[in-house]
Design goal:
By secondary structure, the protein is α/β, with parallel strands linked by helices. The chain is built from twelve helices and eight strands.
Length: 297
C-alpha cells in the first residue's frame, strides 16, 4: 500500500517536470520566458502570429545567451543546446502535447480570452495553462476553459532571464496541485515564487503602479524634472531604478492598461491614471520600445 502511494507521488512529481512547454507570444516577456525554459532543459514551442516577431525573438534570445556565455554563467555548448530546444510556430496547434503553456501576449482581456479558449481545445485536460498577465483576473480567464482548476497566473518580471521573482497567482478555481506545479517549476528555473491571490494588480503592480503614477503627477505638476524625481527615489529610497525610467522599461501603454484595470477593479480614484501618462501613450511615446518616453532612447 505504502509503495503504491510512493509510486504515485513520484509519478505526479515527474509529470510536473514539463519536458515539453509552449510560450504564446514572442514579445519581450515571451522570448525571455522561452529562454529560461530552454536553458533549464525543456523543449519550447514559441508561438506567435507574426513571423517577424518570432525571428526577432530568436535573435534576441541568441544575443542574451551569448552574454551569459561571456559572463561565465553558461557554456557555449549549453547556449547551443538551449537554442536547439526552441521551435517557432505561427499556429496554436503547435502547443499540442505541452504539459505547461505560458501565455505572454498583449495585456488585453479579449485577446487573452480568445487564446485560452483555443488552447483549451488543443492541450490535454491536465495541462497547466499559465498566464503572464500583470493585472488581468486569472479567475476571469479560467471561466472560458473546461479545466479552470488548471489555470494559474505565472507573472514573471522584466527582464525575465535576470529577475528572480515570479508571482504565482491563484484564481478562485485554481487547484492546489496546479499552484504547486507552477511553484516547483519556477524554483527549477532558478526563480523565487510568491503565491498571491487573484485581486487586481496582484501585489507587485498594486503597489508599483500607484508609485509610478504619482511620479508622473510630480513631473506634470513641475515638482521636479524626470531625472530629479528618479534620483530622489534611487538615492533616498534605495530603488535600483527610478519610477519614470522603470515606466519606460515596462512600456507606458502597459502602465496605463494596468492602472485602468486597477481603477475599474477597485473603483477607487487613487488609481486614476495621470493625464500626462494618457497623453504620452496617445502620442506614441511608449518608452524604450518606441525610442522615447520620459527619456530618449
Amino acid at each position: 500500500m505504502g509503495s503504491t502511494a510512493e509510486a504515485k507521488t513520484k509519478e505526479r512529481k515527474s509529470s510536473m517536470t514539463f519536458e515539453k512547454t509552449s510560450v504564446i507570444g514572442a514579445g519581450t516577456m515571451g522570448n525571455g520566458i522561452a529562454q529560461i525554459l530552454a536553458v533549464s532543459g525543456r523543449h519550447v514551442q514559441l508561438v506567435d502570429v507574426s513571423r517577424p516577431a518570432l525571428e526577432k525573438a530568436v535573435a534576441k534570445i541568441g544575443k542574451s545567451l551569448a552574454k551569459f556565455v561571456e559572463k561565465g554563467k553558461i557554456t557555449d555548448e549549453e547556449r547551443g543546446a538551449a537554442l536547439e530546444r526552441i521551435e517557432t510556430s505561427g499556429d496554436l496547434e503547435a502547443a499540442r502535447g505541452s504539459g505547461l503553456v505560458v501565455e505572454a501576449v498583449v495585456e488585453s482581456l479579449p485577446t487573452k480570452l480568445g487564446i485560452f479558449a483555443q488552447l483549451a481545445e488543443v492541450v490535454a485536460p491536465d495541462a497547466i495553462l499559465a498566464s503572464n498577465t500583470s493585472s488581468i483576473s486569472i479567475t476571469e480567464l479560467s471561466r472560458h476553459t473546461e479545466n479552470s482548476e488548471r489555470v494559474v497566473g505565472m507573472h514573471f518580471m522584466n527582464p525575465v532571464p535576470v529577475m528572480k521573482l515570479v508571482e504565482v497567482v491563484r484564481g478562485l478555481n485554481t487547484s492546489d496541485e496546479a499552484v504547486r506545479a507552477v511553484v516547483e517549476t519556477a524554483e527549477a528555473l532558478g526563480k523565487v515564487p510568491v503565491v498571491v491571490n487573484d485581486y487586481p494588480g496582484f501585489v507587485s503592480n498594486r503597489v508599483l503602479m500607484p508609485m509610478i503614477n504619482e511620479a508622473i503627477y510630480c513631473l506634470m505638476e513641475g515638482v521636479a524634472d524626470a531625472e530629479g524625481i528618479d534620483t530622489v527615489m534611487k538615492l533616498g529610497m534605495a530603488h535600483p531604478m527610478g519610477p519614470l525610467a522603470l515606466a519606460d522599461l515596462i512600456g507606458l501603454d502597459v502602465c496605463l492598461s494596468i492602472l485602468q484595470v486597477l481603477h475599474e477593479g477597485f473603483g477607487d480614484p487613487k488609481y486614476r491614471a495621470c493625464p500626462l501618462l494618457k497623453n504620452m501613450v496617445a502620442a506614441g511615446k511608449l518608452g524604450r520600445k518606441s525610442g522615447e518616453g520620459f527619456y530618449p532612447y
